[in-house]
Recover the amino acids of this structure.
């Protein structure tokens, strides 16, 4: 897996952490411990930043770039899906007309519940 920009040389954020996890189904998965990562076209958080969902706090542990072609079933499970194909179909249903290009890069945000 290529994890570009995993060091302190991250580019500026393109959006705020409040927009990182917004879909009701995704929020439910995070709160149930079924989703511990989310992928976005832009960078929404810095490592150490805290996201609050339903009065619970989640700290972002890692932020890195990954191509869609590098996704594994383990990655899909961290997103709350069983397989990459399940994840792919969910993303394509949310973004009609969007192509799924293996070389397309996304930003991965991994998080855990804060203690």
């Amino acid at each position: 897996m290529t994890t570009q920009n995993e060091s302190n040389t991250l580019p500026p954020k393109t959006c705020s952490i409040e927009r990182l996890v917004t879909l009701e189904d995704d929020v439910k998965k995070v709160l149930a411990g079924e989703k511990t990562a989310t992928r976005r076209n832009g960078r929404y958080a810095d490592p150490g930043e805290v996201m609050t969902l339903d009065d619970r706090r989640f700290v972002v542990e890692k932020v890195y770039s990954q191509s869609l072609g590098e996704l594994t079933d383990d990655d899909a499970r961290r997103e709350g899906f069983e397989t990459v194909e399940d994840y792919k179909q969910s993303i394509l249903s949310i973004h009609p007309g969007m192509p799924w290009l293996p070389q397309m890069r996304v930003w991965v945000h991994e998080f855990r519940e804060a203690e």
Remarks:
- The domain at 17-113 is CATH 3.10.400.10 (Sulfate adenylyltransferase).
- The first helix runs from residue 24 to 31.
- The longest strand covers residues 56-67.
